[in-house]
Design goal:
heterodimer, A: 189 residues, mainly alpha, Rna Polymerase Sigma Factor, Chain: A, Arc Repressor Mutant, subunit A, 2 domains, 9 helices, 68% helix, globular, B: 212 residues
Chain lengths: 189, 212
C-alpha cells in the first residue's frame, strides 16, 4: 500500500467534515486520540521522558487539527497531515522539557501500522487539567466551554440560557478554543 | 478537560472550513501586489526613457529574472503554509533566477571591457534600488505574513523566508520598471541585497511569530 495512504477511512470522514457534516467530524475526532496517544507515548519513551502529560499533547494536537483544518488540502490523504501535526506538537512538548529533538515523519507514520492504538486516556491527568485550563479562560468563555463540552448542551441552548445570539456564542466558543490552544503552547512542565 | 469533552467543544465549533490556506495566500499576494503597484505608480512610475528602453534585451532580462523568482516563491509560500508540506521541486525552482543571473553577468563581463565593470556594478542609484525594493516589499510581505499566521507551517522560519523572497521579487518586478540600471551586474548585486534583506527579515520574524 502507498505509505502515505494508510487511512482511507479518515479521508472519507474528513471530506464529509469540511463540507459541514458534524457527525463525520465527531467520528474522526473520536478515532484520532487512540493513535495520538500511541505516537506520544512512543515519542516520550524514545527520549526518556516520563509519560505523565500524554493527554495534554493529545488534546493539543486535536485543537491544532481543528483550528488549522483549512491547511488540509482538500482531496489529499488525511493521515500524513494529521501525523505531521502530531509530530510538530510532540517535538514542541519535548522541547518544553528541554530535549533537543529530531523526529522523522516516517517514524511517526509507523504508528499507523504498529500495535493497536491505546484508546484509554490516563485518568489521573484529566481532572486537574480541566480545572487548570478552564480557570484561565474569561468568565463568559469558561461558562460557554463548560456548558457545551462538559454539560453537553447545544449552542442553541446555551444561547437561550445566556440570552446571547447563537452567532455570539459561536464566536465566543471559537475564541475560547484559540485561547486554550495558546495556553497549551505556553505551558511548560 | 477530558478529551471527549474537548471533542464535543470542537464539534460544536463546527467542522466546515471558511477558506483553504492556499486561497488565503493567493489573496494576500494579489492584495499585496495591488497595494504595492498603487504605491509604485503614485510615487515612482515608469523610468523617463521607457520609450527607448522598452525593447532592449537587458531591460527585459530584469523581468525574466524577477518573474523566475516570484513564481516559485509565491507557490512555495502557499505550500509551506501547510504542516505536511516539503519544498519539493518548487524549492529547486528557486535556483532558476540565480542561475539566470549568473548567465547574464557572465555574458555582460564577456561583452564589456574591464574598465566599465565598476561603473556598471555601481550604476546610478544603488542606495535607492535597495531602499525602494525593501519599501515596496513591505505591504506584500505583511499580507503574506498575515496569511501565514493562519497557516501551520512545518518550519516557520523557512516559510517566513520564502514569503520574504516572494515579496522581494514582487517589489523588484515593480522597481525594475522605474530603475534605469539594466546591467545584470547591477541587478545581481543590488536587487539581490534588497530581496536578501526581506528574506532575512522573513526568516527571523517567521521563527518568532509563525509558531503554532
Amino acid at each position: 500500500m502507498d505509505p502515505m495512504q494508510r487511512r482511507p477511512d479518515w479521508d472519507v470522514l474528513m471530506h464529509a467534515a469540511v463540507s459541514g457534516d458534524a457527525k463525520s467530524y465527531k467520528t474522526l475526532l473520536e478515532v484520532l486520540p487512540g493513535v495520538l496517544r500511541s505516537v506520544t507515548r512512543r515519542g516520550y519513551a524514545r527520549f526518556g521522558v516520563e509519560p505523565n502529560d500524554v493527554e495534554d499533547v493529545v488534546q493539543e494536537v486535536l485543537l491544532a487539527i481543528h483550528l488549522k483544518r483549512h491547511t488540509w488540502k482538500v482531496g489529499a490523504p488525511v493521515a500524513p497531515w494529521v501525523m505531521a501535526i502530531a509530530r510538530h506538537k510532540l517535538i514542541d512538548a519535548l522541547r518544553r522539557r528541554g530535549r533537543q529533538v529530531h523526529i522523522p515523519l516516517e517514524s511517526v507514520m509507523d504508528v499507523l501500522e504498529a500495535e493497536a492504538p491505546e484508546t484509554q486516556p490516563d485518568r489521573q491527568t484529566d481532572l486537574h487539567d480541566a480545572l487548570r485550563l478552564l480557570d484561565q479562560l474569561r468568565p463568559r468563555q469558561r461558562e460557554i466551554v463548560r456548558s457545551i463540552s462538559i454539560d453537553g448542551h447545544s449552542i442553541r441552548d446555551v444561547a437561550r440560557r445566556l440570552d446571547m445570539s447563537e452567532g455570539a456564542v459561536r464566536v465566543t466558543l471559537h475564541r475560547a478554543l484559540k485561547t486554550v490552544a495558546m495556553i497549551y503552547r505556553k505551558s511548560g512542565p | 478537560m477530558k478529551t471527549e469533552n474537548l471533542i464535543a467543544a470542537l464539534v460544536a465549533d463546527g467542522p466546515s472550513i471558511e477558506t483553504p490556506i492556499a486561497r488565503k495566500v493567493a489573496l494576500a499576494l494579489v492584495c499585496g501586489f495591488a497595494l504595492s503597484a498603487a504605491l509604485f505608480f503614485w510615487q515612482l512610475g515608469w523610468r523617463p526613457d521607457i520609450g527607448e528602453a522598452r525593447g532592449t534585451l537587458p531591460f527585459l532580462f530584469k523581468f525574466v529574472v524577477t518573474a523566475a523568482l516570484l513564481v516559485p516563491a509565491a507557490l512555495l509560500t502557499a505550500r509551506l503554509a501547510r504542516p505536511d508540506a516539503t519544498p519539493g521541486l518548487w524549492g529547486w525552482a528557486l535556483l532558476i533566477a540565480p542561475l539566470l543571473l549568473v548567465a547574464g553577468v557572465s555574458a555582460e563581463l564577456v561583452a564589456s571591457p574591464i574598465n566599465v565593470w565598476t561603473a556598471k556594478l555601481i550604476g546610478t542609484n544603488a542606495v535607492a534600488c535597495v531602499t525602494l525594493i525593501v519599501l515596496l516589499s513591505t505591504l506584500p510581505f505583511a499580507a503574506l505574513f498575515f496569511a501565514l499566521l493562519q497557516g501551520a507551517p512545518a518550519e516557520p522560519g523557512l516559510a517566513g523566508a520564502v514569503a520574504g523572497i516572494a515579496a522581494g521579487a514582487l517589489a523588484a518586478t515593480l522597481y525594475a520598471m522605474h530603475c534605469t540600471d539594466d546591467s545584470p551586474l547591477f541587478v545581481a548585486t543590488w536587487y539581490t541585497i534588497g530581496i536578501g534583506i526581506m528574506t532575512l527579515a522573513g526568516s527571523v520574524l517567521g521563527k518568532r511569530l509563525l509558531r503554532w
